[in-house]
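In the design runs reported in the main text, the only information available to the sequence generator was the tokenized backbone. The following block is the verbatim input for one such run; it is reproduced so that readers can re-run the procedure and compare outputs position by position.
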């Protein structure tokens, strides 16, 4: 092994270790690896950042913008509306949801397709009286299967298509992946619908209504005449106990009218009633510091008429919702909190609500946070959010969706399907169909055709200019742009050849089909611990060298890498789709192999014969 090979392997092993550790974002890890390899002289400084202009990177970015256009136009919402009518039988629900998300994932970003159908799945599960856990893992796996249908279905396919161009000048076409992808998708969906969903763990309390029983934490406090805070702002009142208590004012009742999310600068009046979310200790602190008192209940009307005020005793402060009056419950029903999940790209991660100033900057309240199936009971202002956390968010109806977009969160079961117009649906579908046709008939390269379609969607306002860059998953773009030069360095230093020679030594005693099987197993295991795009970038040069050493076509090897990199079923970290359903489904890390292992075996058992039939050696 040469010095250059030693350096590139050391950097790759360190990079893989950091990917597995998952403490730092994968795009930052990849960028650090790129800089290390460049400073070591393995990549010329002038070509270090050429990955940003690589056709694969441009194509992925264009697909993400087009996906946003399809969502905005209501193309997928039109399909989702029909899913609520499929009935209560679990296997029918699983088959329908998994099949539809697989189909959509073949032509748009699979994480985007999953995010759209996940609220529908949770709603269907709750309507049927079952845990969402039996639907969400099949839904995630369906999005992975569907990504294998076309070249644009998943980043590994796009990467592999561009690597094939380097061999003979011809990239894989739009539907060259279809024979293998369709085989594993159809059989995989049937397996999940008939058998697989029974293998998923049943978390009876996951994403249940009881997880966020907010009424048990809501208390009505009144502002008596003569209190120091009459005539002062709501911000002054809350700020007076900020360091001692965790208090959220979620509503204000004035003249029998409830105002949700009152402005923090609203001036308070005597006899205002505040709807406060706080635990008993924080409530006692608030009452003691501000002079507020518990609002009198209807059954204490006689006492009120006699001028007797209900004391803010410890016992009263800790009373729960079972003792609240029906009148107050009606006020609570007017509140409209929304459940949302924190995605891996959210600015909330590793930051607290207090540090971000969520109420001041985004006009939202975080009412509760759940992690690993349990509601967190620590002070909300001090919780550092993590990817996969489920939040109970309160905001005005016209602000909730923009706020969630800004915060990188996805709404769950309370998400309403947007209204759509047939004109926009047909326009978006037509633009996308034209782009696919141009690629399929080789009239334009994929990157050019898709960028053109994305631009037209922006010009026709299907994607507003403000949403262009929000729709692009920049961490994935940076990951690809950094890993592509690293993959080239692995090739130019002879590292790819060294790995291929090791596989060739093994392949001398086994048939070529078995070597293909070993390659698929290796890439699939790698894809379960690092990002699938990174796995494809690292494995593609090895596959090409392996085919050259065996003196066979590289096509079956590259196709095997594409399929294996896209089918990460064994862990929640192998793909964003798996991560996204972990918290709403109440899954644990070790739950994924129950369905993921038979799915992995099924994919390999089907894809190897089909690859060898369609792309023979």
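Verbatim output:
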């Amino acid at each position: 092994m040469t010095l250059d090979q030693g350096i590139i392997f050391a950097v790759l092993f360190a990079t893989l270790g950091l990917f597995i550790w998952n403490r730092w974002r994968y795009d930052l890890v990849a960028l650090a690896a790129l800089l290390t390899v460049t400073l070591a002289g393995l990549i010329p400084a002038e070509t270090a950042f050429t990955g940003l202009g690589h056709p694969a990177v441009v194509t992925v970015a264009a697909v993400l913008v087009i996906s946003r256009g399809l969502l905005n136009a209501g193309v997928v919402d039109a399909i989702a509306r029909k899913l609520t009518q499929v009935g209560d039988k679990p296997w029918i629900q699983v088959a329908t949801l998994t099949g539809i998300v697989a189909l959509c994932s073949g032509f748009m970003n699979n994480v985007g397709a999953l995010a759209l159908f996940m609220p529908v799945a949770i709603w269907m599960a709750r309507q049927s009286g079952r845990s969402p856990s039996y639907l969400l893992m099949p839904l995630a796996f369906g999005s992975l299967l569907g990504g294998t249908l076309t070249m644009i279905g998943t980043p590994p396919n796009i990467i592999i298509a561009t690597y094939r161009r380097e061999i003979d000048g011809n990239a894989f076409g739009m539907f060259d992946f279809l024979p293998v992808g369709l085989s594993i998708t159809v059989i995989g969906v049937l397996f999940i619908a008939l058998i697989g969903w029974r293998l998923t763990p049943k978390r009876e309390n996951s994403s249940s209504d009881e997880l966020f029983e907010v009424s048990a934490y809501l208390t009505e406090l009144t502002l008596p005449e003569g209190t120091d805070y009459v005539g002062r702002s709501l911000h002054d009142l809350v700020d007076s106990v900020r360091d001692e208590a965790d208090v959220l004012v979620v509503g204000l009742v004035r003249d029998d009218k409830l105002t949700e999310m009152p402005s923090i600068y609203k001036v308070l009046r005597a006899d205002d009633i505040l709807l406060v979310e706080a635990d008993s200790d924080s409530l006692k602190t608030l009452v003691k510091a501000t002079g507020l008192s518990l609002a009198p209940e209807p059954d204490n009307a006689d006492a009120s008429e006699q001028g007797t005020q209900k004391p803010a005793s410890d016992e009263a402060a800790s009373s729960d919702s079972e003792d609240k009056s029906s009148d107050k419950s009606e006020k609570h029903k007017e509140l409209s909190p929304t459940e949302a999940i924190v995605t891996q790209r959210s600015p909330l991660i590793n930051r607290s609500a207090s540090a971000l100033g969520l109420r001041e900057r985004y006009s939202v309240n975080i009412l509760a946070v759940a992690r690993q199936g349990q509601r967190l009971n620590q002070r909300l202002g001090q919780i550092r959010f993590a990817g996969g956390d489920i939040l109970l968010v309160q905001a005005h109806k016209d602000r909730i969706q923009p706020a969630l977009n800004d915060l990188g969160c996805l709404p769950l079961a309370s998400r309403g399907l947007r209204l759509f117009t047939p004109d926009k649906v047909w326009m978006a579908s037509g633009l996308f169909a034209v782009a696919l046709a141009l690629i399929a008939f080789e009239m334009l390269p994929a990157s050019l055709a898709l960028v053109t379609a994305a631009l037209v969607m922006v010009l026709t306002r299907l994607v507003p200019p403000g949403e262009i860059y929000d729709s692009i998953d920049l961490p994935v773009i940076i990951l690809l742009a950094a890993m592509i030069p690293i993959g080239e360095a692995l090739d130019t230093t002879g590292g790819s050849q060294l790995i291929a020679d090791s596989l060739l030594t093994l392949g001398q005693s086994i048939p070529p089909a078995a070597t293909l099987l070993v390659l698929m197993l290796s890439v699939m295991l790698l894809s379960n611990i690092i990002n699938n795009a990174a796995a494809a970038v690292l494995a593609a040069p090895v596959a090409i060298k392996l085919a050259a050493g065996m003196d066979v076509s590289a096509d079956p090897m590259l196709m095997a890498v594409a399929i294996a990199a896209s089918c990460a079923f064994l862990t929640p970290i192998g793909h964003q789709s798996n991560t996204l359903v972990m918290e709403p489904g109440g899954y644990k890390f070790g739950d994924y192999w129950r369905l993921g292992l038979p799915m992995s075996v099924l994919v390999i058992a089907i894809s190897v014969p089909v690859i060898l039939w369609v792309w023979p050696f």
